């Protein structure tokens, strides 16, 4: 189903994100998680994509398995990194033949473990270029859906780590939407004021596609520290730090505090008419299930 139909039928939408495991055991554990979350009937689920080829085939396999073995709508991520135009043509064609209806088009992070990576050799330098290419594929009529692929892009409420100029950042986002993106899915954030400001700046820039909020509940103190290292600038409000700090070394209490904080975030977003909430699950179901239960989503 095209993402525009999904949003037309379900506002606000609820969706989940997974990453493809690298082992058979991990894949089976993830599928148990997917089965548990399937009962919540999300609008769609997305599957991440490894830069430099680390999980490319695994992403395709997981997306096809979700499509064939569950009732869920799977949205694969696709990045520009380390790809020729021939690569992207082949990948998009495979998804079209498999009946996949939507793609999340991303610029992608520089690959780890690949020496001397040269971004200038990638066929698509920006996510907007990838969006344009997918729209060109749509015009060929090779997809079963006459509308072709629905296309999502990323938004950054706290600012794009590679674009400190916040005015240029909105210009780049507008370019992705103008190229043919149907919706924006934001990176995680912990202060709803960042999201509301981002949404208002989108309107000022003439961006009117649906914007869904990316939420990742804190499930461990160590995970929060890793997030701070990897995210390139995630802001942790004092209210959240106080809540997590009060738990001390009690990891179960930390997880519960994270669930409570994320529930409060989501409730406030829903009160302010958010168009969708996208949960970064880290391939676990408990936190997401409890948040949905707290919000009355069953």
Number of strands: 8
Ends: how far apart?
22 Å
Total count of domains: 1
Low-confidence stretches: none
The CATH architecture name reads Alpha-Beta Barrel
What is the strand arrangement across the widest sheet?
1-2-3-4-5-6-7-8
> How large a portion of the residues is in β-strands, by DSSP E?
5-15%
User: Helicity, in percent?
Assistant: 40-55%
CATH topology, by name, is TIM Barrel
| General form | globular
Task: Give a brief description.
The protein is of the alpha/beta class. It has helices spanning 3-9, 24-38, 56-69, 85-97, 127-138, 166-178, 192-204, 221-230, 238-245, 251-271, 286-294, and strands at 13-18, 44-47, 74-79, 102-106, 150-155, 183-188, 211-215, 276-280.
Describe the structure in your own words.
With 298 residues, the protein is of the alpha/beta class. The chain has one domain (3-294): TIM Barrel, CATH 3.20.20.220. The chain is built from 11 helices and 8 strands. The chain has helices at residues 3-9, 24-38, 56-69, 85-97, 127-138, 166-178, 192-204, 221-230, 238-245, 251-271, 286-294; strands at residues 13-18, 44-47, 74-79, 102-106, 150-155, 183-188, 211-215, 276-280. Strands 1-2-3-4-5-6-7-8 form an 8-stranded parallel β-barrel, surrounded by 5 helices. Strand 3 (74-79), helix 4 and strand 4 form a beta-alpha-beta unit. Helix 5 packs parallel to helix 6, helix 9 (238-245) packs antiparallel against helix 10 and helix 10 (251-271) packs across helix 11. It is globular. The model has no long low-confidence stretch (mean pLDDT 91).
């Amino acid at each position: 189903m095209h993402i525009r139909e999904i949003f037309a039928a379900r506002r606000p939408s609820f969706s989940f994100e997974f990453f493809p495991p690298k082992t058979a055991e991990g894949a089976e554990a993830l599928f148990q998680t997917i089965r548990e979350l399937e009962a919540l009937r999300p609008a769609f689920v997305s599957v991440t994509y490894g830069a430099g080829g680390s999980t490319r085939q695994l992403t395709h396999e997981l997306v096809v398995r979700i499509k064939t073995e569950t009732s869920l709508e799977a949205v694969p991520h696709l990045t520009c990194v380390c790809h020729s135009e021939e690569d992207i043509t082949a990948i998009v064609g495979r998804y079209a033949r498999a009946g996949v209806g939507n793609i999340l088009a991303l610029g992608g992070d520089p690959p780890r473990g690949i020496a001397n990576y040269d971004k200038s050799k990638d066929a698509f330098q920006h996510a907007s270029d990838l969006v344009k290419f997918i729209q060109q594929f749509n015009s060929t009529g090779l997809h079963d859906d006459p509308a072709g692929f629905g296309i999502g892009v990323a938004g950054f409420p706290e600012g794009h780590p590679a674009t400190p100029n916040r005015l240029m950042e909105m210009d780049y986002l507008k370019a992705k939407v103008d190229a043919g993106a149907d919706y924006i899915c934001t990176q995680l954030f912990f202060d709803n004021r960042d999201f509301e400001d981002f949404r208002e700046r989108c309107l000022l820039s003439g961006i009117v596609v649906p914007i869904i909020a990316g939420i990742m509940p804190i499930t461990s103190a160590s995970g929060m520290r890793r997030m701070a290292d990897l995210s390139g600038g995630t802001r942790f409000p004092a209210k959240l730090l106080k809540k997590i700090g009060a738990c001390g070394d009690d990891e179960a209490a930390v997880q519960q505090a994270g669930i409570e904080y994320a529930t409060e975030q989501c409730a406030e977003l829903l009160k302010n008419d958010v168009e969708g909430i996208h949960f970064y699950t880290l391939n676990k179901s408990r936190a997401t299930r409890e948040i949905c239960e707290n919000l009355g989503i069953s």
